[in-house]
Amino acid sequence: FQVKSENKKTIWNTEEVPEGSEFDDMWDPREKPEYEISFKQHVGTEDVFFGMTGKDPSTACCEDIVIKIKLPETKYSDITLDIQDKVLDLRTPKNKLLLHLPYPVNSKEGRARFLSEEEILEVTLRVSRKLDFINFS
């Protein structure tokens, strides 16, 4: 097995390094907040009653990823959020969350809202999937 590299002194290829690893900082003393990942699916009557589109309840048929992050004692203005194709990077003065997402997302079409009474940041991201017999829109 021969690895071809542009630079002979490199010890790994760029394909071997996971996307988002440049954000990892294990020496950062900030706390990792609690979070919950759920999936959202857009269904209509043709899905629920007739089963015409072939969708099922699995994550393979979901269009959106919803991430709810608990940020106690945090103001909206203190939140820094960066979304890449496979990585969510959240930073506040007290918290830091680097989350590798289960599916690639369209980072340009996401939405985030801060529910100040519950102290929760809700991030909704559109999943980028190749078109197939289930995901055709």
TrEMBL record:
<dbReference type="GO" id="GO:0005737">
    <property type="term" value="C:cytoplasm"/>
</dbReference>
<protein>
    <submittedName>
        <fullName>PIHD3 protein</fullName>
    </submittedName>
</protein>
<dbReference type="Pfam" id="PF18201">
    <property type="entry name" value="PIH1_CS"/>
</dbReference>
<dbReference type="GO" id="GO:0070286">
    <property type="term" value="P:axonemal dynein complex assembly"/>
</dbReference>
<dbReference type="InterPro" id="IPR041442">
    <property type="entry name" value="PIH1D1/2/3_CS-like"/>
</dbReference>
<comment type="similarity">
    <text>Belongs to the PIH1 family.</text>
</comment>
<dbReference type="GO" id="GO:0030317">
    <property type="term" value="P:flagellated sperm motility"/>
</dbReference>
<feature type="domain" description="PIH1D1/2/3 CS-like">
    <location>
        <begin position="32"/>
        <end position="127"/>
    </location>
</feature>
<dbReference type="GO" id="GO:0051087">
    <property type="term" value="F:protein-folding chaperone binding"/>
</dbReference>
<dbReference type="GO" id="GO:0045505">
    <property type="term" value="F:dynein intermediate chain binding"/>
</dbReference>
<dbReference type="InterPro" id="IPR026697">
    <property type="entry name" value="DNAAF6"/>
</dbReference>
